[in-house]
Amino acid sequence: MGRLVDEIRKGRVLVSDGAWGTFLHAKGLKPGECPEEWNLTHRQDVFEIARSYMDAGSDMIETNSFGASRIKLRHYGLDRKVVEINRTAAQISREAAGNDRIVLGSIGPTGKFIITGDVNEDELYDVFREQAVALEHGGADAACIETLSALDEAICALRAVRENTDLDVACTFTFDRTADGSYKTMMGVSPVEMAVKLVEAGADVIGTNCGNGMAGMIDIVREIRKADKKTPVLVHANAGKPSVVFGQTVFPETPADMAGLTPALIKAGADIIGGCCGTTPAHIRAIADAVLQQ
Asked: How large is the average pLDDT for residues 14-37?
C-alpha cells in the first residue's frame, strides 16, 4: 500500500481539497475552453489553486486532470497531449503539496458507456491506463476515479490503475436522491451495490462526490457503511444544491454550514472529507477546523 492508505491507517480523519472548476473560471477560463489545457498554458494559475487548498489545511490535493482522458481531450483536438497534460497536472500539484502531503490524480468518467456500444472494455482500459501512468510519472501518490455512475466503467478504471501503476486507488460515485428517498446513480447503482462491487474490484478507498450537499452525503455514507464497515470512505460534497440567481450559479452552503455538518459525517463513517462544486478554500478551512475539534 502507498501513502494514502498509510495516512488513513494512522486513525485520523483526513481533509481533502475543494472545487477546481469554479476557481478556474474565476481566473479567466472561458466557456468552451479546455480546463486541463491550462496545465500547459496557465501553469501558475493552476499552481495557485492547488496551493490555496494546501494553505487552507488540506492533507491532500487533487490534480487538474478530471477531463484529461484521451476521449475527453479529443473534443478539443488535444488527444495527442494526454501524457503531457496529465504528467504536468501531477507535477503542479506535487509542487504545491511538497513532500509531506498527498497528491490525488483526478480521473473522471469518459462520457462513453459500454452498455450503449459507444466504447468497449478494452478501449476504456487503455484510456484509463494511459492517464493513470502519466499521473504517476508526474508525482501522484494515488488515483481518485471520481463522479462515476456505471459499475463496468469504474471496475475497468480500477483494473487499469492497479495493473499498471503502484498508486493507491480511490473511487467515488455520484448519487441522486430518488422519489422514494433512496439514492441511485443515473445508471441505477445504489451506494450498497457500489461499495460491494468496488471493494471486490480492489479499491483502497470508496465513496461519493458531487450531486449532494453535506446532509445528503451523511445519508449516503450511512448506506455505504451498511455494506462495508472497514474500507475507508472519501466524501467530496457540493456546497449544497445550486440555483441560478440573475444568471449566476449560486451554491447555498456556507463554510459554517458545511463545518457544522462535518461531525455528523464523521460519525456516519467518513474517513476523508473535502469539497466538490461550489466549495472554496474557506469551506475547506472550516471543515479542517471542525475535523480538528473531533
From this structure: 95
Residue 28 is given by DSSP the state T
Kindly state the DSSP code that residue 164 receives in the 8-state scheme.
Answer: H
Superfamily designation of domain 3-292: Homocysteine-binding-like domain (3.20.20.330)
pLDDT tens profile 66-103: 999 999 999 999 999 999 999 999 999 999 999 999 99
Average pLDDT along the chain: 96
Span 92-120, mean pLDDT?
96
CB 224 within 8 A of CB 189: no
Domain segments of the chain as ranges: 3-292
Q: How far apart are CA 207 and CA 216, in angstroms?
A: 13
Sign of CA dihedral 189, 195, 200, 203: positive
DSSP labels, 192-241: HHHHHHHHHTT-SEEEEESSS-HHHHHHHHHHHHHH-SSS-EEEEE-SS-
The identity of residue 171, as a single letter, is C
Question: What is the spatial distance between Cα 160 and Cα 55, in angstroms, rounded to a whole number?
Answer: 33
- d(Cα 169, Cα 3) in Å, to the nearest integer? 11
| 96 Cβ contact partners less than 8 Å away, ≥ 6 residues apart | 47, 50, 51, 53, 54, 61
C-alpha–C-alpha distance, residues 247 and 130, integer Å: 38
- Written as one string, the DSSP assignment of 66-123 is TT-SHHHHHTTT-GGGHHHHHHHHHHHHHHHHTTTSEEEEEE---S--GGGTSS-HHH
Q: Which three cell numbers stand for residue 162?
A: 492497479
**CA distance linking residue 119 with residue 8, whole number of Å:** 35
